[in-house]
Structure formats: C-alpha cells, structure tokens
C-alpha cells in the first residue's frame, strides 16, 4: 500500500522500514501533518501519523479529496484525530493499542525516582566535586500510597512495579479490571484517591471526560507534598492550576512527560528559537518539576511494537480486510483494553501475513 509517513524521525524510521519488509511503499517526511503539508500525501492510499500530527476535520477533508482512505495512527492515544469526521468521510482509522506498556510505566518510575532521590542535583554536585548530601534527602516508596488514574495496560504495568516497591495502590477507573484487583489494587473514587495518595500517576486517555480532570479543586484535595506523574496527555491536567498548586507548595513536585501545548514544541529542534509559551517556561524553571519531551514510549521494544502493528494494519487493508485495531466514531473512554481482550478471546481472526 502506498503510504505517506508524517513525523518520521531517525529513531522510528528504521523500525518501520524493517517491519514493512518492502510489502508497502513507504515515503517519509520529518514534517508534521498540517493543512499546509497535507498535499504531500496526494496520490497515496494511506498515511501514517503520530501524536503531534493534526488530524482535525479540515485536514481530513483535504486528505480525502486527495484520495486518502486509510489513516494508520502510530500511537495508542487517538485524541489528535476527529474520529467522527473520519467516519463521515469513510476514512478508516487504526491505531496501535498496545506496544510495550512497560516502556511508559518504567519511564514514569524513572521520573519518580529521579525526582524523589534528587538524582539530577546529585549528578550536578558530583561534577562539581561537592560531595555534601544536605540537599539530597528523598523518601522510601515502600509503605507509601500510590494512586493510579486509569488502570488499562500502562496503569496495570505501573501498579505492578509500585506493588514490587511495597506501596499500597489505589486506583480510579470507570472499568474495574480483574487483573488490577488480583494485584491487590483497591478501587476508590477520584476524590478518595487524591486525598489518600502520596504519589498520583495518570494513565487514562484524553477525551471529553478527562480533559482537565485535575484542576484547582482536585489539587486542593491532594495531600501536601504529594508528587504528580503525567505520562498520559498534557490536557488531562489544567496547567495553570498545576503551576499555582506547585507555587503554593501544595504539591511536592510534578514529573511530566507530556504538556498541554506540546504540539509544535516537542519532537522538534527549537535550539535557535525563543520559546514564548509562558507556562512551559515557568514549569521548566521550577526545581520541583521534571520535564521530558514525550519520550516515555522510546524503547527499542516499543518502537518495534509500534512499527509492526502499524504495518500489520496496512496489511489488513491491503488485503481488503478490516483491521482489529480500527477505531470507530464512538470511541470515548472505553479505551483499547476492550478491543485487546476481544482479540484475545478469539473473536477476531488474525491473518498470518
Ligand atoms: P488503555 O486503553 O489500556 O487504558 C486506559 C484506561 O483508562 C482504561 O482502563 C479506561 O477505562 C481508563 N479511563 C478512561 N477514562 C477514565 C477516567 N475518566 N478516569 C479514570 N480512568 C479512565 O490505555 P493505555 O495503553 O494504558 O494508555 C493510556 C494512555 O497513555 C493513552 O491513552 C495515552 O494517552 C498515554 N500514552 C502515553 C505515551 C507516552 O509516550 N507518554 C505512550 C502511550 C500511551
């Protein structure tokens, strides 16, 4: 299938080429999909996009008039595409529901430990040959309470690690997962979770019900000195309210792999630009904020998984089948776990191609 790949970078392109094994004609650009770049895909059957690409209605309209009928998202999240509009146009959309949930869960843990044990500062002092420990005190995770918002694949992987540390794990999710209950995770309301947790980690998708799920009121509920981890999507957190909570010393710290206005910022080289986003600059300047540029997925295993499922989706379409990972206009909070378990139960025939 002739596929135009937007937002292709040196880190993921070889994995896609390897997975395609010349079954599909892939043409790559590092540029993002926007209204201005949509015409690059003219004459192609499909496009493959990532989280920073703009799949809003006007862009979909333009793609459709150019003949695009298939969009393969190379991400689990699908908040960057107007699924309703794609369905109206008859454009089929697939995503990658699962690709090493460990990569994201482990990054969340890495950020937590880096913040808690002051590793950045420790390294800085080490280079200065200042071996005093006065500023480096952390706390044990053992015995603490960790709240997980969203117990799908990534949330459960994170819960398992936190259980291994010896933490009590609370969770909130409209769907109670048996696997989480079996791990000893206790489901509670959002308020109970926030009031009771020393560490809160976000692992739910961004949609109409989760946008600004954590705003001023919820930060007020959180324990003093608690740590927030967000490896999910930036807009689940109200950024200005988060900054206020950090400034008021309500929260102890924030570990953020995602940022509300990361589009046009992350994944790109801005070394020679003057960044104007005040909230971003503020967060970056705060000692108790750790930021990474949406890299939680960046492991070899995850990149292999993303590439293989993306190509598998193209395989299905090329052969005239529906992919098991197609998204529908009514996807809201049911998340990808539901589809993954449908597949496991054998209700979907997987082709050996
Ligand atoms: P999943 O679909 O397996 O699980 C999501 C869970 O969130 C489901 O159990 C769902 O019921 C729950 N949920 C939905 N609405 C909720 C609400 N209002 N409150 C609490 N829970 C709610 O998804 P998975 O694979 O675990 O991924 C979670 C999210 O992680 C993705 O949607 C994506 O935004 C983010 N992600 C971030 C990456 C990164 O590199 N930073 C990479 C991959 C995913």
UniProtKB/TrEMBL annotation:
Its EC number is 1.1.1.28. The keyword Oxidoreductase applies. The keyword NAD applies. SUPFAM superfamilies: Formate/glycerate dehydrogenase catalytic domain-like, NAD(P)-binding Rossmann-fold domains. One of its GO terms (molecular function) is D-lactate dehydrogenase (NAD+) activity. Residues 109-296 form the D-isomer specific 2-hydroxyacid dehydrogenase NAD-binding domain. It comes from the Bacteria. It holds the Pfam family 2-Hacid_dh. InterPro entries: D-isomer_2_OHA_DH_cat_dom (IPR006139), D-isomer_DH_CS (IPR029753), D-isomer_DH_CS1 (IPR029752), D-isomer_DH_NAD-bd (IPR006140), D-LDH-like (IPR058205), NAD(P)-bd_dom_sf (IPR036291). Residues 5-320 form the D-isomer specific 2-hydroxyacid dehydrogenase catalytic domain. Keywords: NAD, Oxidoreductase. Belongs to the D-isomer specific 2-hydroxyacid dehydrogenase family. PANTHER family: 2-HYDROXYACID DEHYDROGENASE HOMOLOG 1-RELATED (PTHR43026:SF1). This is 2-hydroxyacid dehydrogenase.
């Amino acid at each position: 299938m002739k596929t135009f790949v937007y937002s292709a970078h040196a880190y993921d392109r070889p994995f896609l080429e390897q997975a395609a094994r010349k079954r599909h004609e892939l043409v790559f650009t590092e540029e993002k999909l926007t209204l201005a770049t949509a015409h690059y895909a003219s004459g192609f059957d499909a496009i493959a996009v990532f989280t920073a690409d703009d799949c809003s209605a006007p862009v979909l309209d333009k793609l459709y008039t150019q003949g695009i009928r298939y969009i393969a998202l190379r991400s689990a999240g699908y908040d960057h595409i107007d699924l309703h509009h794609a369905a109206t146009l008859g454009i089929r959309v697939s995503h990658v529901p699962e690709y090493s949930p460990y990569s994201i869960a482990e990054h969340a843990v890495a950020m937590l430990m880096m913040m808690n044990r002051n590793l950045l500062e420790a390294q800085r002092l080490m280079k200065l040959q200042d071996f005093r420990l006065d500023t480096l005190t952390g706390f044990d995770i053992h015995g603490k309470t960790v709240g997980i918002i969203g117990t799908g694949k990534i949330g459960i992987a994170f819960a398992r690690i936190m259980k291994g540390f010896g933490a009590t794990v609370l969770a909130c999710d409209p769907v109670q997962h048996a696997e989480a209950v079996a791990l000893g995770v206790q489901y509670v309301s959002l308020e109970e979770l926030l009031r009771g947790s020393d560490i809160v980690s976000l692992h739910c998708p961004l949609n109409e019900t989760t946008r600004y799920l954590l705003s001023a009121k919820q930060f007020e509920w959180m324990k003093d000195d608690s740590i927030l981890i967000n490896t999910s999507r930036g807009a689940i957190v109200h950024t200005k309210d988060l900054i206020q909570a950090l400034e008021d010393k309500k929260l102890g710290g924030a570990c953020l792999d995602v940022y509300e206005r990361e589009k046009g910022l992350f994944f790109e080289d801005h070394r020679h630009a003057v960044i104007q986003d005040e909230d971003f600059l503020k967060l970056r300047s705060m000692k108790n904020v750790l930021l990474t540029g949406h890299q939680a997925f960046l492991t070899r295993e995850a990149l292999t998984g993303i590439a293989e499922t993306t190509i598998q989706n193209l395989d299905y379409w090329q052969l005239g089948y529906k992919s098991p990972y197609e998204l529908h206009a009514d996807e809201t909070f049911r998340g990808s776990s539901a589809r993954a378990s449908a597949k496991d139960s054998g209700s979907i025939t997987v082709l050996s191609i």
